[in-house]
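=== Structure Prediction Worksheet ===
Name of assembly: unnamed complex
Input type: mixed (protein and possibly other molecules)
Chain count: three
Listed entries:
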Amino acid sequence: MSTIPVFVLHGLAYASLLFLVSSGLTLVFGMMNVLNFAHAAFYMVGAYFSYSILQATGNFWLSLIVCPLLLFCIGALVERFLLRRVHAFGHVHELLLTFGLAYIMTELVKWIWGNYPLSVSIGSFLTGQVQLMGFTYPIYRLFIIFCAMMVGLLMSLTIYKTRVGIIVRAAVNDSEMLNALGINIPRVFMNVFAAGAALSGFAGVIAGPLLTTYPGMAGDILIDAFVVIVIGGFGSLGGALLASLIIGQLQSFGALLIPKLSLALIYMLMAAVLIIKPSGLFGEEQ
Amino acid sequence: MIGRTYTNVGLWGIFLFVVAVIIPLWFPPYQVTLVTEVIVFALYAVSYNLLLGYAGLLSFGHALFFGTGAYAAAVALNHIPGLSIFGAVVIAVIVTTVTGFVLGGLLLRHKGAYFALLTLAFNALFYAVATKWYSVTGGDDGLSVTRPDISLGIVDLNMSDITIFYYFTLIVVGLVILFSWYFTRTAMGRTVLLMRENEERMKFLGYNTNLSRLILFTFTGALAGFAGAFYSLFFQFTSISAISIDMTTTVLLMTFIGGTGSFTGPILGALVFTYLQDFLSDITDRWPIIMGLIFILMVLYVPGGLSGMLSSLKKRFGRGNYMGNHVEMEGQG
Amino acid sequence: MDPSRGILKMQDIYKDFSGLEVLTGVSFTVAENERHAVIGPNGAGKTTLFNIISGKYKPSAGSIIFRGEDVTKKPPHILSHLRISRSFQITNVFQELTVYENIRAGVRCRLGLRYHFFKTPDSMPEIRQKTEEILDQVGLTDVINEPASALSYGQQRALEIGITLSTEPELILLDEPTAGMTREETNEAIRMIDRVTQGRTLVIIEHDMEVVFSLSDTISVLHYGTILASGIPDDIRNDQRVKDAYLGEE
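=== Predicted Assembly ===
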């Protein structure tokens, strides 16, 4: 049955995208206790920016570099001028702000690019299939998996091996202590938030050609990213990784085996985790 | 003074009621339907604010109750021959109450952002179920609903008539909204408020705070389901939009723009939102952007919403000791 | 003192927080209507002890017996129904609500009006009556309609005690009720506490020795998580171990 490895790879490809999006989300939440509803909107904006750059220059590599940078700036601006302002009003207001942002960004996208799916063409290099152990598989999906692995590697190296990473981890665990050490906490927050946005935007760029680029894409991946975080546990990168892999495979095989129920399957898994281990696979006990 | 609060509310209530009663006499049917819609959404928003403003629980999934109520009523009317309009509403309330109880038991152990996230996820789940379960919900096609007439012995009330249905909504939904207001002054209502102020102390005073939260969550869900049932009856049609996240966004915007700090805030918000939407959608297709902008500006600069603005204006112009904060508005409670 | 006549028995209470041992074997008995002070240096574990008795934390080991019933694992609201009530070292009132409603909360809970959907809290006249009684007992009748946030520090501490009394407890736990008070305020507080704890059992954590010696029948000294000595005030005053460890440090 040569189709099984195909579906496994499909699952890995989707898991890659999910992981890229949910890792930023879980870090920001662990650090700032803010659940950023606009996170998926960053993903969407990344995809749309990429579409425009591709329309203008046809250069996918340019898009891969420029879009995350743009999203980094946007993320930094959002944190610095909007999020920080409502921090004083409390958690509810922070959530409402990110929610409102997501809403507006979606509407703006509809306004500028239209409320219908766009087809994103990336030129000839990454299209096409490759022979793998007895079956053919689209190169692009392998590219996605490869990107996610590289980014994941980069992230873990940064977080676990560099000074910057130590600061980030410390900020997730105990930001007051960091403050006492004289480190500029607001700057750290801003940078992590912006990095999360860039990561999300990057995911959007590579997702564009594969999944449909349309205004609803933010909502689609947001829910799945949330489910990943519930299952994996808040603030846990490892949990996000594992949960992404599980959900990726569920999506893939679910669509194959029980198409009608595949969506519900994921929610049922989430409900099951909620009942059995409410804090998620790797989350801390509340 | 309790007396003064009741008099204030009483006077306003009577004034508004009189206005509401004469609306069909002065305005064309389209305006009457608009007001009917406002009343239904006012209940929806009030139920949401009991959760957000009074209990401090931010939910991003309230439409799952609204939509469940809408579908329950529609399905009941379509499958139970001879079901009265009251029967449909009662069924909707029962179904949403059970839903609220089960869901609340599952979700309420989580707090803050986690809870908000879970409500969103479940809203998405309900939406997905509604979309796929064609045999019951009609999927993307939706369900059409006929309003059963009410027979009062001597006279039959034709519910298809815009004006009659308006008065029916005004009275029935109006009463429910009134009860919700009364609820904020009852023992349970005060318990909810106290819990938001200092949950820990409440535990030590002998209150089972988990139970209280569950009761409130179920209650607000039932209220939203009631509103949802009327939504179905009003549009004579139920579609997946009633249970969509967009529907949650709508009530969130209404409640917040109206102001979460008072009981009447969400009612004001429902009014403003409905009319603004009606007005703007004639001008531009992009009215959601304007709504979104208003919302964000309010989150940033006017967290008290319109009713908050009104009450600080009143304070500024020296109307005595009016405190727009609902905590104080209860007088000695 | 015959241990079997105690209404509250702490048996071998251990508590550690992820390896940090706070209580290492606390045992003592409080008799009915007794006034029992718990003293000890900061960090000795006194508030943790209260948190355990009142149900906020579960002990890592050991048990608590109240009126012969094992209440070790019971949650705070159940303990409140069993007539155990505690105050907080850091004032823990309902800041935005009136003094009246602060007290009424516990009163109406005791009278069963907790979750009623139709009755308003003041629909039972006993509720208003009892609330006003308590306000009178703690001396806050003048500020009955003020929001708690408008009260002076001393008044807030009185409100704190008032709320503790609102559930008609039989066992009252007061956690440093006179912390931060002036000499005058403290003396008034002593009189008030004396008044309101008549006919009830009191366990009080205090640093102010004057309060301790004027109010208590029995004193237990908590030192590094365990009871160093327990007995009548004179015995404690003269106990060498206590002098060395604690009183001598002043």
